[in-house]
């Protein structure tokens, strides 16, 4: 019993010496002071560890990054200065020239220069045929005779042969087959034979098909006799409109008009015709006559020698145009009536 009593006394003494160890555990007020025990609690209580480290880390983090960033800026400028050397890269400048080299790839423009070589085609237009029997610088005119061949045509050919002149005969297609010898003789004397439609229709009042037929049939007839297809024709009455011009152009033909009208079909007087021609003729004239009328053929007895005496060369229309440097193109109207 004594041992039990002693044991109890010891406990009492110890409890008095250290003070209520069991109760302290449950007393919150006493738990706060033991911060020294924090070392033990930090491991056990994770919630508190963030608070403790953050104050210590935050000062470190801001300080460490700031110096780093400050250091890097100072350092980075150097590397960035390395790129800036591009400006100082006067030596690397040789590389920019290559970039300028691409423009040379714009060399295609030189390929555009070849097109100019395509432009030469326009040059072909001026190609007047040669004029063998013509003195280019001399005065000349072209007598033209419509509506034949007729009984009067051979007389005119006689005069041309006698005086060494030439003329242009604008024949009706329907007369060609029955006057082959006259037509051949005219061509043999150096005169020109062209069409005047098939049967003297006013082409300006005709359909496209009729105009084509009138011109084509007449050219066929002339070509059958002479072996040459005329590129000129004289429209009856000089009647021309846009449709006539278009068809003519499509057929590759030009429209032969005139500059002097003798009105021989109206007056039927050789003297009047003679005076009209002599008063109106000039260098380069294209004179409209009709070999259909005997009075016109009679007028030529005086007209042809008189013109030659005045120094005119009596030439064909084609010779006249070539000598004057006039390039004839399809659809072109040669002189206005
Ligand atoms: Zn006529």
Write the layout of secondary structure elements.
Blueprint: H1 2-18, H2 21-25, H3 28-31, H4 38-44, H5 48-51, H6 53-63, H7 65-75, H8 77-81, H9 85-88, H10 96-100, H11 102-105, H12 108-112, H13 114-118, E1 140-148, H14 153-163, E2 168-171, H15 173-176, H16 180-188, E3 192-195, H17 208-226, E4 232-233, H18 242-250, E5 254-256, E6 260-261, H19 264-267, H20 270-280, E7 286-290, H21 294-309, E8 313-314, H22 317-323, E9 333-334
Can you give me a brief rundown of this structure?
The protein is of the alpha/beta class and 337 residues long.
Q: Count the strands? A: 9
Quick check: average pLDDT? Answer: 74
| Structural class determined from secondary elements | alpha/beta
Q: Using the alpha-carbon principal axes, give the shape.
A: globular
Helix proportion range: 40-55%
Indicate the proportion of strand residues: 5-15%
Which ranges are low-confidence, i.e. pLDDT below 50, for 5 or more consecutive residues? 16-117
Biggest sheet features: 6 strands, parallel
Distance between the termini: 171 Å
The gyration radius over C-alpha positions equals 59 Å
Attached small molecules: zinc ion
| Number of discrete helical segments | 22
